[in-house]
Amino acid sequence: MCNQAVCLVAAEFERRGIRTVALVLLREVAERVRPPRALALPFPHGYPLDAPGEPARQHAVIEAALQVLEREPATPPLLVDWANGMGAGSMVSGSQGTASPT
Question: How many domains does the chain have?
Answer without folding.
Answer: 1
